[in-house]
Design brief:
Layout lengths: L1 H20 L5 H16 L3 H36 L1 H13 L4 H12 L5 H19 L4 H17 L4 H10 L3 H30 L19 H23 L1 H5 L1 H10 L2 H17 L6 H35 L1 H12 L3 H16 L2 H16 L6 H14 L9 H10 L3 H29 L1
Helix pairs in contact: 1-2, 2-3, 2-14, 3-8, 3-13, 3-14, 4-5, 4-6, 5-6, 5-7, 5-9, 6-7, 7-9, 7-20, 8-17, 8-18, 9-10, 9-18, 9-20, 10-12, 10-13, 14-17, 15-17, 16-17, 16-18, 17-18, 18-20, 19-20
């Protein structure tokens, strides 16, 4: 029976990867087919399989769809208003040219909170071109820190879609994931971004492409309001997490109820969206029709992520309903593999084989979640597991990852140079993230 369940999981993963890699089937459909294969091989009947698909999809999307949708609209308005460039310009003015790489790390770290990785990078490319032309140093000196900051926040810190999906599948409060993401992200950004960026820029000289010019963003919002509005939902979510866990919250139920309302990710992002709509939109000269168009356009990529997350929830549910998850937990325990190691390795394998970090995170979360059922893990430990998955899903970006080609194209470097710079950076990022979060995990 145990071998039968293990075979079902292996076949399900094999089908998932073959559909994505060989037949180029969309990951949403591939995840659903892989889940059905696991159910069939494990012995579920037709009605049980259909019920599992419905329960897994519905149970996951109730939270994730709302948060990802709100986050996408917020990021879309910030992008259109030029808020991302405002942050980068401010950082350069404060840190100066000599410390511009540090300014790029911080800019990327902040901007990727509300804005998708690829969009944020494209917005800020003219900034690093300008820096290279001013200093004459390799473009990688500024590009690698920026990319590290963007990639770390995109993987580690909600409300970006990946960590939201993993946190929901595993069942941990977003506030703890935000705290752990910042804690693990800061040293990771410094090592993968600044230290490695300085090293690789001495090995590979890259000049800014002459044919691409700074397009000159207009109607830029003020830095203070930009940082305040980006930071508000994070502050509200963290306040709710800390207050609800403290004795102060238990002693003041009315205050706790109010903070629980405004500090829930739904409410916090609604508030942020309303502020962005006015301060980044109406006050900067955008019409209501333009804002509606921006909001609608921003939901297009969000729809794909939402459906992928739902399919990942189905994969988790079928592992739970078949008992395969419990078997994996037992096998993991018998093999002596720590839970953080399993989380990292499972995400890394999927990432390397099929390319998408989001698919890797969701698939790994589906594998890990059943292992946590009935176990005594506290909120900090669960948040550490989320970051371990995110670290593994960030490793070794290569030719099957769209980010690999995006970076190479905009930096004007060859595939070999992209491997030596971007791919190595993502690998350093993954291992430093795992090491950092492992230290926290074993301390608590």
């Amino acid at each position: 029976m145990e071998n039968h369940l293990l075979l079902s999981v292996l076949l399900g993963i094999a089908v998932l990867l073959v559909l994505i890699l060989k037949f180029r089937i969309h990951a949403f459909i591939a995840l659903l087919i892989g889940s059905i294969v696991v159910g069939l091989v494990a012995g579920l009947d037709a009605q049980q399989i259909i019920g599992t698909v419905q329960n897994g999809m519905g149970g996951t999307l109730g939270f994730v769809a709302t948060v990802v949708g709100l986050g996408a609209i917020f990021g879309g308005i910030l992008e259109a208003s030029g808020g991302a460039k405002t942050i980068a310009d401010f950082m350069i003015s404060k840190f100066g040219l000599n410390r511009a790489p540090l300014a790029m790390v911080i800019s990327g770290f902040l901007i990727a909170i509300p804005v998708f990785f690829d969009v944020a990078f494209i917005i800020l490319v003219p900034m690093i071109y300008a820096l290279q032309r001013k200093t004459g140093k390799s473009l990688l000196l500024y590009a690698i820190p920026l990319l590290a900051g963007l990639a770390i926040t995109h993987a580690f810190i909600p409300p970006t879609p990946g960590p939201i999906a993993v946190a929901d599948i595993i069942g941990v409060d977003l506030g703890w994931v935000i705290l752990m993401g910042f804690l693990a992200g800061i040293p990771t950004a410094l090592i993968a971004g600044l230290v490695f960026g300085k090293y690789i820029s001495k090995k590979i000289f890259v000049a800014a492409p002459d044919e691409i010019k700074d397009d000159g963003e207009h109607r830029l919002p003020h830095i203070a309001e930009t940082l305040a509005i980006i930071g508000l939902p994070i502050v509200l979510i963290l306040t709710n997490t800390i207050f609800s866990a403290s004795s102060l919250g238990k002693a003041n139920p009315q205050i706790q109820n109010f903070i629980a309302l405004i500090g829930h990710p739904f409410s916090a992002l609604i508030i942020a969206n309303m502020l962005a709509w006015y301060f980044f939109g109406i006050r900067k000269g955008f019409s209501k029709a333009q804002l509606m168009k921006i909001s609608t356009k921003s939901l297009t990529p969000a729809g794909t992520i939402i459906l992928l997350t739902g399919a990942g929830g189905v994969f988790k549910q079928v592992l739970t309903d078949t008992g395969a998850g419990e078997l994996l937990a037992t096998s993991l325990s018998n093999a002596g593999i720590p839970i953080l190691g399993f989380a990292f390795i499972s995400a890394a394998i999927v990432r390397i084989v099929q390319g998408s970090s989001t698919v890797a995170m969701i698939t790994a979360a589906g594998l890990v979640a059943p292992l946590l059922s009935g176990s005594e893990f506290n909120s900090i430990e669960l948040a550490c597991i989320v970051i371990a998955i995110a670290s593994g899903a960030s490793i070794f970006s290569q030719v099957n990852d769209s980010g690999f080609w995006l970076v190479g194209q905009y930096l004007g470097i060859s595939e070999k140079q992209t491997f030596r710079s971007w791919t190595v950076m993502t690998t350093i990022l993954a291992f430093v993230g795992l090491i950092t979060v492992s230290v926290v995990y074993w301390i608590v």
